[in-house]
Write a structure and sequence with these properties.
The complex is a heterotrimer of chains A (about 450), B (about 475) and C (about 130). Chain A is built from 14 helices and 15 strands. By secondary structure, chain A is α/β, with parallel strands linked by helices. Chain A folds into 3 domains: about 50 residues, no CATH class; about 260 residues, Type I PLP-dependent aspartate aminotransferase-like (Major domain) (Aspartate Aminotransferase, domain 2); about 100 residues, Aspartate Aminotransferase, domain 1, CATH 3.90.1150. In chain A, the strands form 4 sheets. In chain A, strands 1-9-8-7-6-2-3 form a 7-stranded mixed sheet, sandwiched between helices. Chain C is globular, with a radius of gyration of 14 Å. With about 130 residues, chain C is an alpha+beta fold. Chain C has a 6-stranded antiparallel sheet with strand order 1-2-3-9-8-5. Chain C has a 3-stranded antiparallel sheet with strand order 4-6-7, with no helix packed on it. The chains are: A alpha/beta (about 450), B alpha/beta (about 475), C alpha+beta (about 130).
């Protein structure tokens, strides 16, 4: 193998010669004369030289080993990204090259597999959220939320958003950034301990409010009463946007049944590795009345020329490639492969598994919280919580995380920076955390208390 | 291709399971008793109840009704459907990369941060930029991010009147829509008969209301904007910024860089140029690069190298803020990084040389049977017009569908908008000469069919798992769930 | 059935049928419907009772591959909308000049009708555009 041969570049010297001859030029250089001399690079790119396959694998493994993974230490961190059971069928399906190397299914006749899989994904999410229509996915839960805010503003023709501070801080930041581009005002609502302060929400919601936004369960794991928020929104003609953890919907009432107008979130808990924060998979659910304003792509059912059931990307005229500056959104990619992974996971878990998994999460977190309280630690949450809650520590959360790391445990999320509560630690216990791991966590905290 | 009979819900039988969860080692909590009654789920979600074999058979059959790059040639213009290397799939799945949480203590993710930092440097070198953010999730997201930085730059200079973004009439739809969503007015700049930006029109339009010009180079016709230096002068002279849409970067790797051409901001499509898979429509990644004077506006948090190791730094007050949850599509970044290490500087240069060679070769093979609106040396892609065939009643859409019968994915059709009955073809560098020859033969055969037996073409496709679809019905009677 | 040759027309391919002294009915021409292709949705952007100035956006017409705005050819108030189009948008393709009508207006300035094209002028305009 000479330095100039690459396994992804099939052209031999012979091939090159033949093609240049057909084109009618002497050399490769003649194909680049349209690039002015003044802007031509004079040297090779300043990047590291090529590495052979086995050497590269070795290097990448070494790099990966510089990280501590959930496979090596139990992790008690949630805050929007979770360590859950991923059935082995997920990877088996998404590793099929017919799925992962395919383009967006615009040529429907050659993409029925992808289209049907996404249609099924849409159906499953609609079932969980209790809504009539779900799109084919967006970048992540946060992007979905910012799109929901945009849709609410467009539909109500109002430009104020009431946003609970119990919504994920990263989501709120993305909403603020997107609102700036769209000329919207975002007003944040403070919390009453672990839940949104509904009295303040009532005051802040006016006839200028396009939507009220809450998270379910909220960032601290607590379950907010959507019925109360719905009433507040309805009274002023505003929409209710709910950002929901789809796994929690295995045990919590569907937001659609409680009057949500738009339900968004991330399907990462279903079948997607944490992957240092991405790629994950945003979902976006509405009812029929708003379906033509939904961003991104959506798969619809139809028939072919022989009358057979088939699937196709529909309502494309809203999309950027046709509407251009009048598009409802600028998004082109979605997260198709991840939506497929989540669909496979939801299909594997099924009706029963989703409920069982949700219950396990509740059980682990409840045991964890109770055991902490038994040892004299305070839990901030007053409302019922799903798989996350906040420990009110007598010392800085950062210090706790340090001690936990030294004991071989990845701790929780400190509320120091985003909520100005340096002694509060947001922890998560999924179905993967064992009693033994939880007991060990508590033992470390106990050790610190007595120090 | 085979017909799949059932939608997955139709395979369901109550009591069947496809999962395995651990038994609980803690007491059961009566959650329903803790919640207000109306917040308790009454009706479980009707998700399928199927066995593992049923699940695998269902999805395997679906996959066989799907066309990926490894099934056959994908000549989609503007998409760069190159081969997706397998080593990338291995590295992205390494436990140390896949099973890490974004909020873990930084000392436990030094490998991830190192990868990101090195990738930032690689992309900066490849694009001739001074700073890079890996946060945006896709090309359009990168565009929006870039435009928000344009906005921040002008706001800082007090140029609030700069509300107009110029976009050539040949541009991809995400350009004007991103500009609009970022709060700008879009002004369309006409192309000359040669398919390039009309310099005179640009000169006339550029003034103190100009925020930026968004350009891809080579443009969507596959033609290099020769006057790019003058274009840069016009825009900079008017006080605007020059934005590079990186969709067509595959044509110029190592030949020139956007930075050298005079661009101020760049976005890249890792799922195009850098071999990460399209996934049926995502996930991708759309990093942005900027020149030094725009670095302050880059999104936060930023991956930085310090004496003490790699850190995530959000202490950048002029930043436009985070544009995505966490730090970007890390799983996609691992794949792009692996690709760049595999190719190195010589490899990337050969990528562009090969891509451009293949496009010009294919154009030559087809120029007698199709109208070629721009019969010049192109870069990595070219546009044909189906106007000749339209006279006989066969449209570009029909020919695209007929290609499916020959075992090829169709090229991009009806884009760019400035060419009638457009057929845009981008072969990429990973295809062999034989594939190019076979494809040309197929397309020429279809042109012949269009003349001799048009119904074969207008009735296509005949051999796919479904025949041509009733898209009108799908848009009138909207059924988007089971 | 009124003869559409007696209607007024605009260069944006809208037709205007005079119903009474101060009310008109508005739709898009057969030519426009053909250009759009199979219409899948008609969105009444301007609500009932909305006051529109000549040139304001009144309706959005969606086909599978494109979306088009329909503008108010004259100024006035929207007094009626063709609700049948909600279930049968294809009527616009089938009967652009009759059953495919979109909305009715009460004129605020009847003299604006004189500024519109007549049938022959519209046909000539279309012929020129196609050339």
């Amino acid at each position: 193998m000479t330095e100039e041969q690459f396994r992804y570049l099939p052209d031999t010297a012979e091939d090159e010669k033949e093609m240049l001859a057909v084109i009618g030029v002497e050399s490769m250089e003649d194909l680049f004369t349209d690039i002015p001399e003044a802007i031509r690079l004079k040297e090779e790119l300043a990047i590291p030289a090529a590495v052979s396959e086995s050497e590269l694998l070795k290097q990448m493994k070494k790099l990966a080993e510089k990280n501590v993974s959930a496979g090596q230490m139990p992790i008690f961190m949630g805050a929007g990204t979770y360590d859950h059971y991923i059935p082995s069928v997920v990877d088996a399906v998404i590793s099929r090259s017919e799925f992962y190397t395919a383009y967006t299914p615009y040529q429907a006749e050659a993409s029925q597999g992808e289209l049907q899989a996404i249609f099924e994904f849409q159906s499953m999410i609609s079932e969980l959220t209790g809504m009539e229509a779900t799109n084919s996915s967006l970048y992540d839960g946060f992007a979905s939320l910012s799109e929901a805010v945009g849709l609410a503003a467009a539909v109500t023709k109002r430009n104020e958003i009431v946003l609970s501070q119990a919504v994920h801080p990263n989501a709120r930041a993305v909403v603020h950034a997107a609102a700036k581009g769209r000329g919207l005002d975002v007003i944040e609502v403070l919390m009453e301990k672990d839940v949104t302060n509904f009295n303040v929400t009532r005051c802040l919601t006016t006839p200028d409010t396009a939507a009220i936004v809450v998270q379910y369960p909220n960032f601290f794991g607590s379950v907010e009463d959507l019925a109360v928020v719905k009433k507040i929104a309805e009274d002023k003609g505003a929409l209710l946007i709910v950002m929901a953890n789809p796994l929690a919907l295995g045990i919590l009432e569907a937001p659609g049944k409680l009057g949500a107008d738009i339900v968004v979130g991330d399907t990462q808990p279903f079948g997607l590795p944490m992957s240092f924060g991405g790629p994950h998979c945003g979902y976006f659910s509405v009812n029929q009345k708003h379906i033509r304003k939904v961003p991104g792509r959506i798969v619809g059912e139809t028939v072919d020329a022989d009358g057979e059931r088939a699937f196709v990307l529909t309502l494309q005229s809203r999309e950027q490639h046709i509407r251009r500056e009048k598009a409802t959104s600028y998004m082109s990619s979605n997260q198709a492969l991840n939506a497929l992974a989540s669909a496979v996971c939801m299909a594997a878990l099924g009706k029963q598994g989703v409920q069982e998994m949700a219950q396990l999460n509740v059980d682990k977190a409840a045991y964890f919280a109770q055991a902490l309280q038994d040892k004299g630690f305070a839990i901030m949450n007053q409302a019922p919580f799903f798989n996350e809650f906040v420990i009110d520590l007598p010392f800085p959360a950062e210090a706790a995380n340090q001690a936990l790391l030294e004991a071989g445990i990845i701790g929780g999320y400190s509320l120091a920076e985003t909520y100005n509560k340096p002694n509060q630690l947001l922890v998560c216990a999924t179905e993967k955390r064992t009693k033994e791991e939880i007991d060990r966590f508590i033992a470390v905290l106990e050790g610190m208390s007595h120090a | 291709m085979r017909k799949t009979k059932n939608v997955i819900f139709e395979l369901s039988r109550p009591g069947r399971v496809g999962y395995s969860l651990p038994k609980s080692d803690v007491p059961k909590t009566d959650f329903k008793a803790k919640l207000p009654e109306h917040l308790v789920r009454k009706e479980p979600a009707e998700l399928p109840e199927i066995s593992e074999l049923q699940l695998m058979r269902h999805y395997t059959n679906l996959s066989q009704n799907n066309f990926g790059v490894e099934n056959g040639f994908y000549p989609l213009g503007s998409c760069t459907m190159k081969y997706n290397p397998k080593i990338n799939e291995v590295t992205a799945r390494l436990d140390g990369f896949a099973n890490i949480h974004p909020y873990q203590p930084v000392e436990t993710v030094q490998g991830a941060l190192q990868l990101m930092h090195e990738l930032q440097e690689d992309l900066a070198a490849i694009t001739g930029m001074d700073g890079v953010s890996l946060q945006p999730a896709a090309g359009a997201h990168g565009e929006w991010t870039g435009l928000m930085m344009v906005r921040a730059y002008h706001e800082k200079n007090g140029d609030l009147q700069r509300t107009k973004v110029f976009v050539p009439d040949s541009a991809h739809g995400t350009n004007p829509s991103s500009a609009h969503i970022a709060g700008f007015d879009v002004v369309s700049i006409p192309s000359t008969a040669e398919g390039l930006v009309d310099l005179e029109a640009l000169r006339l339009a550029a003034n103190d209301q100009t925020a930026a010009l968004m350009l891809t180079n080579p443009n969507t016709l596959g033609l290099f904007e020769r006057d790019i230096v003058q274009i840069a002068e016009i825009i900079h002279g008017a006080g605007g910024l020059l934005y590079y849409d990186g969709a067509n970067l595959n044509a110029i790797l190592s030949k020139t860089t956007p930075g050298t051409m005079g661009f101020d901001i760049v976005h890249l499509n890792l799922h195009k140029t850098f071999s990460t898979p399209h996934g049926g429509g995502g996930p991708g990644a759309g990093p942005v690069g900027v020149k030094a004077y725009l670095k302050e506006f880059l999104p936060i948090p930023r991956v930085e190298k310090t004496e003490a190791g790699y850190v995530l730094n959000s202490d950048h007050p002029a930043s436009i803020g985070p544009v995505k949850g966490y730090y970007g599509n890390f799983g996609v970044l691992v794949r792009a990084y692996t690709y760049i290490r595999t190719m190195g500087p010589v490899g990337l240069r050969k990528v562009s040389e090969s891509a451009v060679l293949h496009a010009n070769y294919l154009l030559k093979l087809l120029e007698n049977d199709f109208n070629t609106p721009y019969p010049v040396i192109c870069k990595h892609e070219f546009v044909l017009s189906g106007n000749r065939q339209k006279k006989g009643g066969v449209r570009t859409l029909d020919m695209a569908k007929r290609l499916l019968d020959y075992g090829y994915y169709a090229p991009t059709v009806y884009f760019p908008l400035i060419v009638e009955e457009a057929l845009m073809i981008e072969p990429t560098e990973t295809e062999s000469k034989e594939t190019l020859d076979d494809f040309a033969h197929a397309l020429i055969a279809i042109a012949r069919e269009a003349a001799e037996s048009p119904e074969t073409v207008t009735g296509a496709p005949h051999q796919t798992s479904v025949r041509r679809l009733d898209e009108v019905r799908a848009a009138r009677v909207i059924k988007v769930k089971y | 059935m009124a003869d559409h040759k007696n209607f007024h027309y605009t260069k944006e391919h809208e037709w205007v049928e005079k119903l009474t002294e101060d009310t008109v009915r508005i739709g898009i021409t057969e030519h426009a419907a053909e250009q759009l292709g199979d219409i899948v949705f008609v969105d009444f952007v301007a609500d009932l009772d909305a006051e529109l100035a000549k040139g304001d956006e009144a309706v959005t017409v969606e086909s599978v591959k494109s979306v088009s705005e329909v503008y108010a050819p004259v100024s006035g108030t929207v007094i009626k909308q063709n609700e049948a189009l909600a279930d049968a948008p294809e009527t616009v393709n089938a009967e652009a000049f009759a059953g495919g009508w979109m909305y009715e207006m009460r004129l605020s300035d009847a003299s604006e009708l004189d500024e519109l094209l007549n049938y022959d002028e519209y046909e000539a305009f279309v012929a020129e555009e196609e050339a």
